[in-house]
């Protein structure tokens, strides 16, 4: 056999081996699942040939797309938010990247966008130059939907659909830490006498009240604002770009009117809300400080008769170091402790509170009074007595 014929034979064998490899790759992907379509992209010609489609009129016939990148854009098949992903996907094929995988939304025959995953492997000629990409397209809409549902379960309160407290707190902290952040306001809200109504009318009634109240709160603010559920009947909202007192009052007055209308629809059952407001950065630059300021304002709103809102006032003596939500949390911990669930934390919580009072209160006797008040809150006592001993004598106080 002549050298030239031998060379041509070797080239032909190499070409057949490449074709066999391509067919094996196609068969392997075809067997992996019915929710996939197969395609081949000619790098030099910029042509994509799809041998089977996921669904629609080209399901059982070849679809040939000349000048693939430009044609897909001309047909407006790519979701506007995924156009950059599509460009990166096309660049990856044109470069001949060894392995390709991109996810994007594409317009289907039914006029709706669905999620697809494009996976491909590049085939090179005998000189190692990329010549084509063989790949498959998978419908991952269901997978994306499941992921979104799982993400919602992790980040959202299951009853109201609002952010849960941990997620809302992290989002607000991120806002406050942003050097370019704009001023904003933190609102702490508490439904008045909800526990009594829940006990009187039952959990189904109580859950419906919480759902409707959460919806009213959520729709009273802008989409960019952070709305979350703290626990039980407590909510928090951080609104960016609003710090003017009159604007805040106007917003909260509308919210309370909507709640009162809802109460009338519930056959006169009372449904009001108390709100504490703190403005950043005046009332606090950190989340902890801003929350504490709003919590003290909420405590004052409750103390002054409920069904109202109060702004934090730096000049006011709140006669307490605990805000309203902090007090409710203390009550909850006390109930858990007395039920045998949290005995080990009682002394630590009381000790931390006492230590804080003694270190922050200028008048020692005022600090002692606050500590005893908190002891009564924890253990549900109406009164506490301090017995002072001095050289054999005793004094009650």
Describe the structure concisely:
This protein has helices at 3-32, 68-74, 83-95, 141-155, 165-177, 194-201, 203-219, 245-265, 287-303, 324-338, 343-360, 364-379; strands spanning 36-42, 47-50, 63-65, 99-107, 113-124, 130-139, 163-164, 184-191, 226-231, 234-240, 273-280, 309-311, 387-390, 393-396. It is an alpha+beta fold and 397 residues long.
Give an overview of the whole structure.
It is a single chain. A hairpin with a 2-residue loop joins strand 13 (387-390) and strand 14. The strands form 3 sheets. The protein has a 6-stranded antiparallel beta sheet with strand order 3-2-1-6-5-4, with helices on both faces. A 6-stranded mixed beta sheet has the order 7-9-10-8-11-12, with helices on both faces. The N and C termini lie far apart (118 Å). The protein has 397 residues and is α+β, with helices and mostly antiparallel strands. It is built from 12 helices and 14 strands. The protein has helices at 3-32, 68-74, 83-95, 141-155, 165-177, 194-201, 203-219, 245-265, 287-303, 324-338, 343-360, 364-379, and strands spanning 36-42, 47-50, 63-65, 99-107, 113-124, 130-139, 163-164, 184-191, 226-231, 234-240, 273-280, 309-311, 387-390, 393-396. It is elongated and about 120 Å long.
């Amino acid at each position: 056999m002549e050298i030239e014929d031998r060379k041509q034979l070797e080239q032909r064998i190499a070409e057949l081996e490449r074709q066999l490899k391509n067919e094996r790759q196609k068969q392997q992907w075809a067997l992996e699942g019915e929710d996939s379509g197969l395609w081949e992209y000619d790098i030099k010609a910029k042509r994509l040939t799809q041998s089977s489609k996921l669904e629609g009129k080209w399901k059982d016939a070849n679809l040939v797309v000349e000048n693939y990148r430009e044609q897909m854009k001309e047909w407006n098949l790519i979701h506007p938010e995924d156009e950059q992903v599509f460009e990166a996907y096309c660049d990856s094929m044109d470069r001949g990247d060894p392995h390709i995988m991109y996810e994007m939304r594409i317009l289907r025959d039914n006029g709706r966008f669905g999620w697809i995953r494009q996976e491909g492997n590049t085939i090179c000629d005998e000189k190692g130059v990329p010549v084509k990409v063989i790949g498959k397209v998978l419908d991952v809409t269901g997978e994306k939907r499941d992921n979104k549902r799982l993400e919602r379960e992790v980040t959202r309160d299951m009853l109201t659909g609002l952010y849960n407290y941990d997620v809302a707190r992290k989002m607000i902290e991120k806002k406050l830490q942003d050097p370019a952040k704009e001023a904003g306001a933190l609102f702490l809200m508490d439904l008045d006498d909800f526990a009594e109504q829940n006990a009187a009318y039952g959990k189904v009634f109580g859950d419906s009240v919480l759902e409707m109240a959460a919806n009213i709160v959520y729709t009273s603010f802008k989409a960019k604002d952070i709305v979350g559920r703290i626990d039980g009947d407590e909510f928090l909202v951080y609104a960016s770009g609003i710090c003017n007192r009159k604007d805040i009052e106007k917003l909260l007055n509308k919210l309370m009117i909507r709640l009162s209308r809802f109460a009338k629809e519930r056959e006169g059952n009372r449904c009001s809300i108390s709100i504490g407001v703190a403005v950043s950065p005046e009332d606090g630059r950190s989340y902890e400080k801003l929350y504490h300021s709003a919590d003290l304002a909420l405590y004052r709103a409750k103390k002054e008769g409920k069904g109202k809102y109060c702004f934090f006032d730096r000049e006011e003596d709140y006669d307490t170091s605990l805000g309203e939500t902090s007090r409710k949390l203390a009550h909850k911990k006390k109930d858990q402790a007395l039920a045998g669930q949290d005995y080990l934390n009682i002394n630590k919580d009381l000790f931390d509170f006492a230590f804080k009072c003694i270190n922050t209160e200028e008048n020692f006797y005022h600090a002692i009074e606050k500590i005893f008040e908190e002891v009564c809150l924890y253990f549900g006592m109406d009164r506490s007595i301090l017995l002072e001993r001095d050289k054999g004598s005793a004094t009650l106080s």
